[in-house]
Specification:
The protein has helices at residues 9-26, 57-63, 82-95, 108-117, 138-144, 157-161, 167-174, 179-184, 190-204, 235-246, and strands spanning 3-5, 34-37, 44-47, 53-55, 74-79, 101-105, 125-129, 149-155, 209-210, 216-218, 224-232. The chain is an alpha/beta fold. The protein has one domain (3-246): Vaccinia Virus protein VP39 (Rossmann fold), CATH 3.40.50. The chain binds S-adenosylmethionine (SAM).
């Protein structure tokens, strides 16, 4: 069954579908170009309200093609929910004519460190982490930092971090306790500081290039649900993502950035 999603999901996915073809063009000369989806979902999404079926991130990556025809050479989709992993496997089987995809059922914090060990360290590898909560653990990010990765991360502030009283889980997410005084603060710059703590720590792991502003995905009442953080080890990644962020969202509106 497709996953029921809010209409705002289309804005998140548009960033991915605008970025990937340009990334593929920029990495054309590499022997391999790898895509990893850490929270793949079942493949198809059904938009609440309209009932429209839209491709989720794994299918967007599978179909992504640069204007010169370059595509990903291998794609890996990690999904913890068994039924969703099976459904993704079936959908991918119909579309993946060149057998480039592998669905990996299981937890991202177990499977991603295992997977990355088997991949070449120097191949451009795009990692999309799109959790609903604060599942990706810092130790997982530390592990993949040794590879030529760039990351697009859903930072689920409104959906998880702001509400999460479970400090053990937040510690594992940030890899530090430094978030706590920021979280407790009531000052106006609170969200920005919580976001910057995470981004600064990613930069310390070697992903030096990021965009200054982070697109905010808002719900139907304008509430901030999550931010999309981008980090790369190379300058062109940053340039391409800045260009993508200036493009209109799925409704043709200019993006709200933070
Ligand atoms: C927001 S959805 C992903 C949507 C997908 N990116 C798309 O565009 O269609 C998050 C998915 O992550 C899965 N998930 C949650 N925790 C996980 C974990 N620890 N490891 C792997 N997958 C997980 C959920 O079952 C869910 O399918």
């Amino acid at each position: 069954m497709p996953r029921d999603v809010g209409s705002w999901t289309k804005n998140k996915l548009k960033i991915l579908s605008d970025y990937l073809p340009v990334y593929l063009k920029a990495t054309t000369r590499a022997m391999e170009r790898i895509y990893i989806d850490g929270f793949a979902g079942p493949g198809l999404n059904r938009v609440r309200g309209t009932g429209k079926i839209v491709d989720g991130s794994p299918l967007i990556a599978l179909d992504a093609k640069a204007e010169n025809g370059t595509t990903f050479t291998r794609l890996f989709f990690i999904e913890r929910d068994e039924a969703s992993a099976l459904e993704l496997e079936n959908t991918v089987a119909q579309r993946d004519t060149q057998r480039r995809c592998t669905v990996i059922p299981g937890d991202v914090n177990v499977e991603l460190p295992r997977l990355i060990e088997r991949l070449p360290k120097r191949s451009p590898t795009f990692v999309f982490l799109d959790p609903e909560g604060i599942d990706p653990q810092w130790t997982t990010l530390q592990k993949i930092a040794g590879w030529k990765t760039e990351l697009l991360i859903n930072f689920p502030f409104g959906m998880a971090i702001n509400r999460n009283p479970d400090s053990g889980k937040v510690n594992a997410y940030y890899g530090t306790r430094e978030w706590r005084p920021l979280w407790e603060s009531t000052s106006p710059g609170r969200i920005r500081r919580l976001l910057d703590l995470y981004k600064n720590r990613l930069q310390e792991l070697g992903w030096r290039y990021t965009t200054d502003a982070d697109p905010v995905v808002t719900g139907t009442r304008g509430q901030r649900l999550y931010y999309l953080i981008f980090v790369s080890k190379v300058e062109p990644g940053q340039r391409i993502m800045k260009w993508v962020q200036e493009r209109p969202d799925s409704a043709g509106q200019l993006r709200f950035k933070f």
